[in-house]
């Protein structure tokens, strides 16, 4: 899943060629830039409401692993 999300971002950064229309990497990068921060923030909020093992680990692992690529994707989407 992460590799699939990385394809349009890499195409937008001109690291790889992306087959299809020219707007595909732009729209794909915008989608990835929108979804990753929502998942990261959602994990932080949901973890505060639950007391399960998964909820305890989410702010320590999954949420940062979503927020870091979100920042990188935003740089690619809006910076270049």
Summarize the structure.
The chain is mostly helical. Helix content is 76%, strand content 0%.
Describe the fold and architecture.
Helix 1 (2-12) crosses helix 2 (23-49) and helix 2 (23-49) packs antiparallel against helix 4 (62-79). With 80 residues, this protein is mostly helical. The protein has one domain. The protein starts with a helix and ends with a helix. The protein has helices at residues 2-12, 23-49, 53-57, 62-79. It is elongated and about 45 Å long. The mean pLDDT is 82.
Q: Report the sheet with the most strands, covering strand number, pairing sense and barrel closure.
A: none
Task: Supply Rg.
Answer: 15 Å
**Portion in beta strands:** under 5%
Q: Give average pLDDT, whole number.
A: 82
- Overall helicity: over 70%
Give the count of structural domains: 1
What are the secondary-structure elements, in order, as H or E?
HHHH
Q: Can you tell me the residue ranges where pLDDT is under 50 for at least 5 consecutive residues?
A: none
Structural class: mainly alpha
Notable traits:
80 residues, mainly alpha, 4 helices, 76% helix
List the helices and strands and how they pair.
Blueprint: H1 2-12, H2 23-49, H3 53-57, H4 62-79
Helix pairs in contact: 1-2, 2-4
């Amino acid at each position: 899943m992460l590799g699939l999300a990385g394809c349009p971002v890499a195409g937008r950064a001109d690291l790889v060629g992306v087959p299809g229309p020219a707007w595909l990497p732009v729209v794909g990068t915008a989608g990835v830039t929108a979804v990753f921060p929502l998942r990261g923030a959602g994990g932080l909020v949901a973890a505060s409401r639950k007391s399960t093992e998964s909820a305890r680990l989410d702010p320590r692992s999954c949420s940062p692993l979503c927020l870091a690529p979100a920042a990188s994707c935003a740089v690619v989407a809006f910076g270049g």
